Amino acid sequence: MSGSALFETFARVPLAFERGEGSWLITENGERYLDFAGGIAVNSLGHGHPHLVQALTEQAAKLWHVSNLYQIPGQSRLGERLAENSFADRVFFTNSGAEALECAIKTARRYQYSKGHPERYRVITFEGAFHGRTLATIAAGGQAKYLEGFGPKVEGFDQVAFDDVDAAEKLIGPETAAILLEPVQGEGGIRPFPTASLKRLRQLCDKHGLLLIFDEVQCGIGRTGKLFGYEWSGVSPDLMAIAKGIGGGFPMGACLATEEAASVMTAGVHGTTFGGNPLAMAVGNAVLDVVLEEGFLEEVSRKALLLKQGLAAIADEFPEVISEIRGTGLMLGLKCTMPNTKVNMALRDQKLLAVPAGENVLRLLPPLTTTDADIQEALERIRAGAASLSKAAANGG
Ligand SMILES: Cc1ncc(COP(=O)(O)O)c(C=O)c1O
């Protein structure tokens, strides 16, 4: 946009939304878009969820911010609830996914240091990973396009091919501290790690005294039909980063840890000004109220099946547009036959929002609260988009 004072770091679409309702985003002139991008897995409960609006506005009238120098009851409560419902015993709150990862990486390094192994600081990661845009998390993600021009890559990250556990095993050396992965890669193209691989990685970590770190910034908080994606495998990490869905649109994240891993993070070792502030905690607790309600996650799985089956039928009908449906729960990917950006644009023409990912995949990340009617509407729009692309391709376009 000419005259804009903003960094041009985002290739923005010329669309501005004024408000949202459930799975829908509405422009100033009243055009309605079906939001199956969900702020890239952020709007876990859709737009304008009454329980979240109430929690945020009630808290806003009471207290916005106090420093972590004081007790924050909402923070203690959310920490306890996350711990009760996961492998974790301790939680550190942050403002974003990348900061949650920074905390996990720092905790892993500090753990090895405190256990008498200051030489162990290296972290093994997997190709296709995305862990954020700070200097350490671009090094962890290892993607050349995000590292270019930002000086020496932060030292201590080694990468192997996606799901190559043999290569990871070979890479473990006297300096290795941890293994880091997304149980379901998001930006990498909706790629779930096979359970057998997660089990082997857990065994390798146990054998060599390494910490296993999961990044559930995108796949956590009900997205796969369980509260956390790792639950499908039965393999627990020592540390886990979450963000996105836990805030439902309010910026927040958290690093979850076992007692053992967190024991080294003593007073003054790490900190944050805003992380865990009362506003964020009110919203995080409200998100959990809904996601932990009896039957909520089962509904996510039921709706996900409906969506996935409908998408599979579209892929069967238009193999020249979509070759495969990937993913679990409401974290689905359309592996495209033609460029995913082209498919994305065709869906946007149908007023349906999706998000491109690696491996020529287009992600669908609707709100977990999306309805059967929204799903039927989305399927009709995706079918119409695929049909128009197919027709254009047949006409040589
Ligand atoms: C798996 C994963 N990890 C980390 C991040 C970084 O989160 P943030 O953008 O909140 O720093 C993202 C963001 O897309 C993500 O998908």
Task: Itemize the secondary structure elements and their pairings.
Blueprint: E1 17-21, E2 24-27, E3 32-35, H1 38-41, H2 50-62, H3 73-84, E4 90-94, H4 97-114, E5 122-126, H5 135-141, H6 144-147, E6 157-160, H7 165-171, E7 176-181, E8 184-185, E9 191-192, H8 195-208, E10 211-215, E11 239-242, E12 253-257, H9 259-262, H10 278-291, H11 296-317, E13 322-328, E14 331-336, H12 340-349, E15 352-353, E16 355-357, E17 361-364, H13 372-394
Parallel strand pairs: 3-15, 5-6, 5-7, 7-10, 10-11
Antiparallel strand pairs: 1-2, 2-3, 4-12, 8-9, 11-12, 13-14, 14-17, 16-17
Helix pairs in contact: 2-10, 3-10, 11-13, 12-13
Bound molecules: pyridoxal-5'-phosphate (PLP).
Pyridoxal-5'-phosphate binds next to helix 4.
Number of strands: 17
Rg, alpha carbons: 21 Å
Helix content: 25-40%
Number of helices: 13
Low-confidence parts:
none
Strand order of the largest sheet: 4-12-11-10-7-5-6
Largest sheet: 7 strands, mixed
In terms of DSSP E residues, the strand content is: 15-25%
Element-level helix/strand string: EEEHHHEHEHHEHEEEHEEEHHHEEHEEEH
The hetero molecules present are:
pyridoxal-5'-phosphate
**Helix/strand/pairing category:** alpha/beta
Question: Which term fits the overall shape?
Answer: globular
**Mean pLDDT across all amino acids:** 97
Distance between the first and last residues' Cα: 29 Å
How would you characterize the overall build of this protein?
- It is a single chain.
- The protein is globular and about 65 Å long.
- Helix content is 38%, strand content 18%.
- It is built from 13 helices and 17 strands.
- Helix 2 packs antiparallel against helix 10, helix 3 runs parallel beside helix 10 (278-291) and helix 11 (296-317) runs parallel beside helix 13 (372-394).
- By secondary structure, the chain is α/β, with parallel strands linked by helices.
- The protein binds pyridoxal-5'-phosphate.
- Pyridoxal-5'-phosphate binds next to helix 4.
- Residues 40, 96-98, 101, 130-132, 182, 186-187, 215, 217-218, 243 line the site of pyridoxal-5'-phosphate.
